[in-house]
Amino acid sequence: MSFSLGLLLIPYFIAVGGFLLFAALNVYHLITYGATTRTSFLFTFGFLAGSVLIAYASWWFLHDIDWAREITFQLMQTGAIEQF
Amino acid sequence: MHIDELIHKKPEEKVIFYLRRHIIVFIGGMLLISLMAIIPIGAYFGVMKYYPQLFQRELIGPAIMLAASAYYFWVLLFFFANFVDYYLDAWVVTNDRILNIEQKGLFNRTVSELDLLNIQDITSEIHGVFPFFFGYGNVQIQTAAEQGRFVFEQIPKPEEVRKRLLTLVEEEQKKIRSVNRKAEEIQALKD
Description:
The complex is a heterodimer.
Chain A: E1 2-4, H1 9-32, H2 38-62, E2 70-72, H3 80-83
Chain B: H1 3-7, E1 15-19, H2 23-50, H3 60-88, E2 90-94, E3 97-104, E4 108-115, E5 119-125, H4 129-134, E6 136-143, E7 149-156, H5 158-190
Antiparallel strand pairs in B: 1-2, 2-3, 3-4, 5-6, 6-7
Helix pairs in contact in B: 2-3
């Protein structure tokens, strides 16, 4: 049995998409309900800076992986886990 | 927060005070989220010490890195959502009414108000070890209407808030009584 390593990116991008959606909703709430103060600005800035930092760290760790590579393994066989 | 815009202030209405939950409640949530952020780092060092080849596996390595990346995005989101939830929950007390602005999650927001004249009874309570040491608790406001109680949750100095509310209610009642008396006097003069 084999599959492309890039398949792992699908759930990852779904999770990141969910993150972006909820992040936008939170920022929208702060702006809509008039919470445009220095405190809310600082927290929003910290949140955005943290997001950029995580995105950069993720890219740094993941950029040299060949996502097109095929992973082959056999289920129900001794050593299948080791094969991963 | 721009309170005046938020509460649509009446012409002669003054904001007396403005309350949020005690800061320690917010810090408690943040500590829990910080713990969520630290645990995988500890696990990473544990794995690196006892099973360093795990990250070299052609499937497990990238899968762990992707999971860690998504996990930290979401931990950061919880951190921010906790702030938004804390920051958008507020109670505004004016010389005329009390407003309860409550944000529950992302999709539920309740704004309710109570006229000071409808207040029948005010109770403050501090329950538990943390509330006792940090001086926060609830203030329950009983009204005449069937809508039940209005609760200021986990606010700092609940006893002081109760006293100030009682003073405001008394002042409002006095004002109404004097207006009624004047109206009666005018009516008597007309008669």
